């Protein structure tokens, strides 16, 4: 990510534009399916998902570009928080029982997920999806998944456990359509 993007995220964390909150529902509902306790939270932000997972007994590697967000997770039990540039980041192979990526587009990771997950590993992804209800001016037209993109991205090498579209409220109470997917790695 560019320095401009890093500065933008730092500003939003610093001024409270992005509030701290709870884990995403789909994480709370499906994380327990992981057969082990090694988890990765990509673009973790304030660590809402990472905190929930750590409290549920997972050891969580939490990645984000913002030092402000990462600082909020330092010295937390069962969380290893790392400030990283996610552009070009390479996931460790065969390392995670659970990978969570919420509200980060992260298409570049799609091809890495199967290798990064341990046998029978669980992947949870949730993000904005192309929909007439969504503000392209707010998100930018390319900051949303295309319709059907998540399902087609994980139709090989994974078993579909859950897929849903739902409206979510933004921090300014605007409602937008998002899509969730939960898949399990098929071992070959």
Describe what you observe in this structure:
- With 188 residues, the protein is α/β, with parallel strands linked by helices.
- It has one domain (3-185): Rossmann fold.
- It is built from seven helices and seven strands.
- It has helices at 3-14, 25-30, 48-55, 67-71, 110-116, 136-139, 149-153; strands spanning 38-42, 59-64, 79-83, 96-102, 117-128, 158-169, 175-185.
- It has a seven-stranded mixed beta sheet with strand order 3-2-1-4-5-7-6.
List keywords for this structure.
188 residues, alpha/beta, Rossmann fold, seven-stranded mixed beta sheet, 7 helices, 31% strand
**Low-pLDDT windows of residues:** none
Tell me the domain tally: 1
Question: How are the strands of the largest sheet arranged?
Answer: 3-2-1-4-5-7-6
- The total count of helices amounts to 7
Beta-strand proportion: 25-35%
Please tell me the CATH architecture by its name.
Answer: 3-Layer(aba) Sandwich
CATH topology: Rossmann fold
| Radius of gyration, whole Å | 16 Å
Q: Which geometry do the CA atoms define?
A: globular
Query: CATH homologous superfamily, by name?
Result: Vaccinia Virus protein VP39
Main sheet makeup: 7 strands, mixed
CATH class: Alpha Beta
Helix content: 25-40%
How many strands in all?
7
List the helices and strands and how they pair.
Blueprint: H1 3-14, H2 25-30, E1 38-42, H3 48-55, E2 59-64, H4 67-71, E3 79-83, E4 96-102, H5 110-116, E5 117-128, H6 136-139, H7 149-153, E6 158-169, E7 175-185
Brief summary of the model shown:
The N and C termini lie far apart (34 Å). The protein has one domain (3-185): 3-Layer(aba) Sandwich (Rossmann fold).
């Amino acid at each position: 990510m560019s320095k401009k993007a890093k500065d933008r995220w730092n500003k939003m964390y610093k001024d409270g534009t992005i509030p701290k909150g709870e884990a995403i529902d789909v994480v709370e509902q499906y994380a327990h399916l992981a057969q082990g306790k090694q988890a990765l939270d990509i673009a973790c932000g304030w660590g809402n998902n990472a905190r929930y997972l750590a409290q549920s007994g997972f050891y969580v590697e939490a990645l984000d570009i913002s030092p402000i967000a990462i600082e909020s997770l330092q010295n937390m039990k069962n969380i290893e928080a790392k400030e990283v540039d996610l552009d070009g980041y390479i996931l460790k192979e065969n390392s995670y029982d659970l990978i969570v990526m919420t509200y980060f587009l992260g298409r570049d990771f799609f091809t890495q997920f199967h290798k990064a997950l341990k046998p029978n590993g669980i992947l949870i992804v949730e993000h904005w999806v192309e929909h007439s209800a969504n503000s392209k001016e707010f998100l930018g037209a390319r900051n949303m998944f295309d319709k059907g993109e998540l399902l087609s991205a994980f139709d090989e090498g994974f078993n579909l456990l859950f897929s849903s579209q739902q409206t979510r409220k933004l921090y300014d109470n605007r409602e937008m359509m998002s899509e969730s997917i939960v898949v399990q790695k098929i071992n070959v």
